[in-house]
Design goal:
six-stranded parallel β-sheet, Rossmann fold, 17 helices, 450 residues, alpha/beta, globular, 22 strands, 4 domains, Alpha-Beta Plaits
Length: 450
């Protein structure tokens, strides 16, 4: 597929990188010559210098051949106008990054569609919702839901006293309808086989029917109490969205930010949350505000190094759980190694949403795991793919891929080699990045792929 990306900032660069890895033709449009040159010199893409909403640029024959435009500049209005103009020159589908909630609210969807925008995405809201989902599953490092919330994946860290360690997967006694889909060990992601074992400090991805996953959470991981109080450092877009979301979930919220104007704006938006103007690195302030009594400390400033410092301070002062927002995905492994519990990248979360849209209609969702070290996909089995009506053992899936669950009508199946894939099945697939293009091709409908 030919994809046009308008804007070569952090999100635009990451999207171009992921899409070229999947063999898509990518054209990047960027006004800033320095940014354009960086993309041109580091990625296998075509670049055009100019404004993505300009008729001169959009009427370029190479641009008009595109099937999808993704507008991710820093300006909502530019992104929206670029998408509107793209539809006028014949580009079939458009995605706009829109941060202003006035444009992105549910009641504005029909309005945006009328403008020619097929999907609006707010990276900060996506990140805030992901944090909430993980917070509400206290023992998990990551949570993803599939098949209309009937299948769940959780990531948990194996304690040294777990009954699951040092036993081959074929010998493990797990709740029915669950499976070990992935293991992160020493920074390396593994798609496990029956002879593999879980080791202390492994980060393990379990997938299965929701009630069965809750049993794993209750019995096989370190017990942690329900989240009732959180401390947020940083009242930027993510912090503001998250504070309002958590307050609606009856979670007590305190927010610290050094910008008085931001603090006043957020204080007016909250009913009960407490907003404090101060430095997140102020040990005396953190101690006075009970950082050690909070169930989680969320470090959400725009400075990666500051977030790490605050998280380490919070741990030192007794915080049981820390979350950090990072701008650079390559920091994720480092932060986890030094003791940060959950690290989230808005760029990666946004890329996951957009990748689902870029892929064919039978790809329902895409989640990039552990800084894109692995991917979880939900795919509806089409009538005429290479794997349809085949047993799994004959489907020729790549070595570093695994089908963790299949949802067939009302039934949730943990598959084995004899399981036959049928049209309409929802398959939850885990794969390492180098195998993803092959997996996607295997599950393509033959009529669509021609």
């Amino acid at each position: 597929m030919r994809v046009v990306i308008v804007g070569a900032g952090k999100v635009g660069y990451s999207l171009a990188q992921y899409l070229t890895q999947e063999d898509h033709e990518v054209i990047v449009i960027e006004e800033n010559e320095e940014r354009r040159a960086i993309v041109q010199n580091t990625l296998d893409v075509m670049t055009i210098s100019g404004n993505g909403a300009s008729p001169r640029v959009l009427l370029d024959p190479e641009v008009r051949k595109a099937e999808l435009m993704i507008a991710v500049t820093d300006m909502d209005e530019v992104n929206m106008i670029a998408c509107m103009a793209a539809k006028q020159v014949g580009i079939k589908r458009t995605i706009a990054r829109v941060r202003n909630q006035e444009y992105a609210e549910k009641d504005k969807i029909k309005f945006n569609e009328a403008l020619g925008i097929d999907l609006t995405i707010n990276p900060e809201m996506v990140t805030a919702l992901e944090i909430k989902r993980i917070l509400l599953t206290p023992s998990a490092l990551d949570v993803e839901d599939f098949a209309g919330d009937r299948v769940r994946m959780i990531e948990v860290k194996m304690p040294s006293d777990s009954k699951l360690i040092n036993t081959s997967l074929t010998q493990l006694t797990l709740p029915s309808h669950t499976l070990v889909a992935g293991i992160l060990r020493n920074g390396r992601m593994l798609i496990p086989h029956g002879s593999d074992m879980l080791l202390p400090n492994d980060c393990v991805f379990f997938v299965g029917e929701v009630s069965a996953i809750k049993k794993i959470e209750d019995h096989f991981t370190v017990r942690k109490s329900k989240v009732e109080r959180v401390l947020i450092i940083g009242a930027g877009r993510i912090g503001r969205h998250l504070a309002m979301i958590l307050e609606k979930s009856d979670i007590a919220v305190k927010i610290i930010d050094k910008d008085m104007e931001r603090c006043q704006e957020l204080a007016e938006s909250l009913d009960e949350g407490l907003v404090l103007c101060g430095e997140g690195t102020d040990i005396e302030l953190l101690t006075e505000e009970g950082v050690g009594e909070a169930d989680a400390v969320l470090c959400l400033t725009d400075d990666d190094k500051l977030n790490l410092l605050i998280a380490l301070l919070a741990k030192h002062l007794g915080a049981p759980r820390t979350f950090v927002r990072v701008g650079r995905p390559d920091y994720i492994s480092l932060m986890e190694k030094v003791g940060v519990d959950v690290v989230l990248s808005p760029r990666i979360l946004t890329a996951g949403v957009i990748l689902r849209y870029v892929r064919r209609s039978d790809v329902v969702s895409v989640s990039l795991l552990e800084g894109a070290k692995a991917e979880a996909m939900e795919i509806i089995i089409p009538p005429l793919s290479q794997v349809t009506h085949k047993k799994l053992k004959d489907a020729k899936l790549p070595k570093n891929s695994l089908i963790g669950s299949i949802v067939r009508d009302e039934e949730i199946i943990i598959p084995n080699g004899e399981t036959v894939l049928k049209p309409g099945d929802r398959a939850i697939i885990f794969a390492l990045p180098d195998t993803v293009p092959t997996v996607v091709r295997l599950f393509e409908n033959k009529l669509e792929s021609k």
